Amino acid sequence: MTVIAAAPVRTRLSPLLRLLILTQLAFNIGFFAVLPFLAEHLGQAIGMAGWLVGFVLGLRTFSQQGLFVVGGALADRYGIRPVVLAGCALRIVGFVWLGYAEQTWAVIGAVLLIGFAAALFSPAVESEVARQAVLWEEESGGSRTRVLALFTVAGQAGAFVGPLLGALLLAVDFRTACLAGAGVFVLVLAGHAWLLPQRVPGREPTRISGGVGALIRNRRFLALCCAYGAYLLAYNQLYLALPEEVERVAGSQAPLAWLFALSSLLVVTTQLPVTRWVGDRLALRRSMAAGLVLIAAGFAVVALARPAEWTGVVGLLPAAGFVVLLTIGQMLVAPAARSWVPDLAEPGRLGLYTGALSSVSGLIVLAGSVATGMLLDAGLPPAVPWLVLAGVSGAAVALLPRRS
Question: Which residue ranges does the record assign to the Major facilitator superfamily (MFS) profile domain (predicted)?
Fold first, then answer.
């Protein structure tokens, strides 16, 4: 919270924008107290095969990202308040269910509910932040990307605190971490029932019908979705490929929480300066392209070091290099993509387009996570999965729309 207060635009933001930015902080504290440790729980405690772990993680992302388009359309139609409150209530139920789930079908049901909850509240919050950022840009003459970067900083601050909280709670058991995550969302639900406005000025209800057809015909927007999906697939490897690599070199997943903390700390401390520097020099397309190239380089670092079979502290260095390059790439890609959407969306349908950005990328992550899990289990040379992922991130540069 102190980091947010230090941001240059903080004092000029509206009360609604401040609430939504703090919302992202709270969401991620609860979420990341559980998610980084889910793969180990599924593999060790539940006994799932690697491909099934990849499928469940991809299904969680798809049920969240893939259904964002539904949450975004509902936010356009009914406003953000009812959608956010419903999503928080479902997330509470999902976390409690996951804590007590011991069979595959129960785990899948809980994971689907957790993902769908975010599919409700996240696009509502993100689309309103983007809309308010455009209004702030028009009123102040500043860059909307800086406001969206501040939103990213808040999310990463939550992602920094969440894994540390989860690591402490795992000293008890995974169920305790799940119940703590549910408790965070109980507080979020209560706070938003009190503080979130019944109606946001300037946001008029928009009919759900008629918007999807125009969206499908919007080739530039779909190209942006595909490139963003490749980035999200790469980011998802923090929960699939990285835990396996850390387990190999360290003998346990204890260092994983510190690698997550490193990623979040980088974003919290450098996202805003990076955004200001890039905003003065690079257009949105070039910013995203540079970020994807850095992400590809992160995968290549692990691929090149993998044949050496390093272990211990030295073995963790390539994984740390991957996390750093992925994080810097994220700092370039995510705010630029969110800033681009309002320019490509139809009037009154920003929620739908914000949701569609995540829905298309969720489909890519679902397919890509299953393929990655199969690659990791296939007995191929250890560098191959990392080289394939590097190639996917690098190839995504060609998918970006040609004009900003």
Answer: 1-404
